Amino acid sequence: MRPINDAHVAEPGLAVVEVAAADDQTAFAIQELLATRCAVAAADRTTHEPGEPGVRLHCFLDPRQRPDA
Q1: What's phi and psi for 30, nearest 5 deg?
Q2: What is the pLDDT of residue 69?
Q3: Are 21 and 47 in contact (CB under 8 A)?
């Protein structure tokens, strides 16, 4: 797992979300679902750890902002 940078959670309301899913399609679908609810700095790729099942995706979100703001 990538380390969390202080800037990612510099103030209350900011969050780092790690999605663990069986495949890329599912991980990106979850990211899209989050993006309908709040502002998201979306990931453009997933990662896979050798020897572990599935994929992981990190995205950064700010639930204080609506996605259309």
Answers
A1: -65, -45
A2: 55
A3: no
